[in-house]
Amino acid sequence: MIKILLVGGGGREHAIAHAISRSKRTYQLFAVMSKKNPGIAGLCEDFLINAETDVDKVTEYAVKAGIDIAVIGPESPLAAGLADALDVAGIPSVGPKRAAAKLEFDKAWTRSFMAKYGIAGLPEFRIFDKTQEEAALRYVDELGDVAVKPAGLTGGKGVKVMGDQLPDRDAAKAYVNELLAGDVVVIEENLKGEEVTVHAFVDGSHLAFTPSVQDHKRAYEGDLGPNTGGMGSYNDAGHLLPFMNERDYEEAKQIMKDVVARVREETGVEYRGILYGQFILTANGIRVIEFNARFGDPEAMNVLPLLETDFIDIVQAVTTGTLDTIDVRFAAKASVCKYAVPAGYPENPTKDAPIQAGDTGDALLFYSSVYEKDGVVFTTGSRAAAVVGIADTIKEAEQIAEQALNNLEGPLECRHDIGTQALIQKRVDHMKSLRG
Ligand code: AMP
Ligand code: GLY
Question: In the chain, what is the straight-line distance between the N-terminal and C-terminal CA atoms, in Å?
Fold first, then answer.
């Protein structure tokens, strides 16, 4: 019998709980989540409703429950040092200690780290603090076309890019000024291309990679509107996306391997957990947009259901440094994940509205930012629930997801274009036009 604690209550964590529930091992699942996610609650022995960043409370709960392994879903408890505290209590985590999780929560540190060790995929960048305002504005002029990033955690919503959220150079400078008041700012070249997510399970030295996934950050169809945590995502049967080649995937993997090795060298801490690499394929080769220290949400909902290897065997191997002894395999299937979000999301979302999932057919349903009260599921201000279609082709998977969306009731919206042939062709054409 193995006791597992899952920390987090979103769609990503529901997908992790679902992966655990498919295990052939004898196990008990416990959870700590800030709101009662009905999908996770239904798969658990016991759960605690509590802030996931409350390191003392989570550790106390884990010790009392006799937990063998903790799986930490979101970034905020990693940044709060939960893996460190659990380690002191003798409980290993899937999720890096704070020093290694810096890869996600300090973008300035990560860019400097990549530069120091000559890790491939680094864009032109510089880092500025509030004493360097003039130099920062000059650098915007020097690069001409920029992305502006606060160094700290922003849930994927603090980055602004010229031509998107920043109409021109003056707007970019104004945003630099605004950010400098409160944080260190990273200014980097505006990279043009197609974005790709690759995850790896990491045990300190070995990495086991997932298939590539593409997320859709923009809120509205046609890639318009504000950035979100991600409105939906897809993968193709096999490990490449339709616009990728083998070399892109190999380069992404090599960058992630180098990062893991160098993090140990730089921090003295072994990276154990999930490493999320977000890449952009450009005319000049692959570049790193960012690393995260956890699964992507929604991307976890694509890849975890495809796992053929027992998830509990994998997490055990992650915590014992023995990932090289197991074969981490994924079914060669395509999947399409679409998020249903409260009407008006993200600017003016309908909160506390009841929603209901009818028969979702062949699709999987994962609850995200909702809460259950007296058997009724309510929206919060954030992404509510996702459906995932799985099939031999993206086209079939997309249709399965669409059918399932028809049976979600409540004031919900989604991006119907995700995974459609038209949007995928647009990605393929875009990549072709860049690479010639
Ligand atoms: P992040 O929070 O780092 O994931 O950034 C959010 C989004 O901003 C990414 O998904 C990209 O679309 C975009 N982005 C970040 N950095 C750059 C860059 N250097 N050039 C162009 N787009 C970027
Ligand atoms: N879907 C992007 C992320 O989880 O960061």
Answer: 55
